[in-house]
Amino acid sequence: MSFQDIHFSSGTVQDAPPYKFHRLKSVSYDECKTTADWLLSNTQVRPIVGIVCGSGLGGLAEMIKDPQIFKYSDIPNFPRSTVHGHAGRLVFGTLKGKPCVCMQGRFHLYEGYPIQKITLPMRVFKLMGVETMIMTNAAGGLNQDYKVGDIMVIKDHINMPGFAGVNPLCGPNDDRFGLRFPCMSDAYDRKLRQLAHDVAAELGFSEFVREGVYCVLGGPSFETIAECRMLHMLGADAVGMSTVHEVIVARHTGMRCFALSLISNRAVMDYDSHEKANHEEVLETGRLRAEQMEKLVSTIVAQLEHNINN
C-alpha cells in the first residue's frame, strides 16, 4: 500500500467525501459541460451573475426571486457541502432584475476534495454564460484597525497553499477554459471594487466597509499566533480558508471577480490573550451582519450593467 492510498476514517459523517491523499486529477472540459448542460436543461434561467455564499451568509440566496433550487447531491459531478452553515444548494432566479445562480455553500480543501473538484462550479458557471462572479466569505481580521463585523472588499490575495504547489490550475491545461499562465495582478476587478465603495457610501455603510488583502490557508485548524503574526507581516489584512482558488479558476476562464470578507473574529496575535477562534462565532457574526451584507451585494448587482457600460 502506498502513502497516497491511505484512507482516514471519519466516523459516520453523512455525505462526507473520502478522506485520502488524492493523486492529481484535472476536471475535464467534458465533465464540466455535462454538468452545465444538465443544469441548462433543467432551468429556464440563463445566469450572467454567479454568487458564492460563505459561512453563515447563505441568506443572500433568499433574496433571489422565482427561485429554482437544486441540491448539490442531485447535480451530476458536483461535490457536496459537509460544513455546518453551508446548505449545499444551487439557487437559480433573478436578483434585482439580473439572472443569477447562487451557491448556498462552497467547498474547501479541508473537506478532502481535490482542489480541481472544489473549483468545478466556476468552470460550470462559465459554460452556462456567467460573466461576473461575486463571492463572500467569513474571515479572521489580521489588520488591527479592523473590527468584528467589518466588511472587507478584497483587492488582492495571498495563495499560501500555492507556495507548496497547491493550485487549481496544476495539471494539463485545456485551452477551451483559458491560457496556461493567466495573470493574477488584476484578479479582483477594479471597477467593481470602486462600485462597492460607491454603493457603501449611498447606503451609509462606509464606516464599516474596508479594503484589503485576503490570505487563504488550508484549514481546518485555525491559525496559530505565530502564523497570524507572520501573515500580518506579509501584508495580509484578513485570513480564511476559501475564495482564492475559486477566483483563480474564474479568472482563468475570463470571468470578472469581486469578493467580500466579513470579519467574523479578530485573529489572536497576543500570547497573553485568552481569546480562541471558533466556528460558532463565525456563524453568529454572519447572522448579525447579514442584512447589511445582503443589501450591499444586491445593490451592487442592481448597478452591474451601468458599471459595465461605463
Domain unit count:
1
CATH topology: Rossmann fold
**Secondary structure: helix percent:** 25-40%
Could you list the spans in which at least 5 consecutive residues all have pLDDT below 50?
A: 1-23
**CATH C-level label:** Alpha Beta
CATH homologous superfamily assignment: Nucleoside phosphorylase domain
How many DSSP helices?
8
In CATH, the architecture is 3-Layer(aba) Sandwich
**What spatial order of strands do you see in the largest sheet?**
5-8-7-6-9
Distance linking N and C termini:
59 Å
Q: Please write the string of helix (H) and strand (E) elements.
A: HEEEEHHEEHEHEHEHH
Proportion of β residues?
15-25%
Largest sheet: 5 strands, mixed, barrel
Quaternary organization: single chain
Total beta strands? 9
How would you explain this protein's 3D organization?
The chain has 310 residues and is of the alpha/beta class. It has a single domain, classed as Rossmann fold (3-Layer(aba) Sandwich). The protein is 29% helix and 22% strand. It contains 8 helices and 9 strands. The chain has helices at residues 29-42, 115-118, 120-128, 190-203, 225-234, 244-252, 279-302, 304-309, and strands at 49-53, 65-71, 89-95, 98-104, 132-141, 151-159, 209-216, 238-240, 256-266. A 5-stranded mixed β-barrel has the order 5-8-7-6-9, surrounded by 4 helices. β3 and β4 form a beta hairpin. α1 crosses α3 (120-128). The model is unreliable at 1-23 (pLDDT under 50).
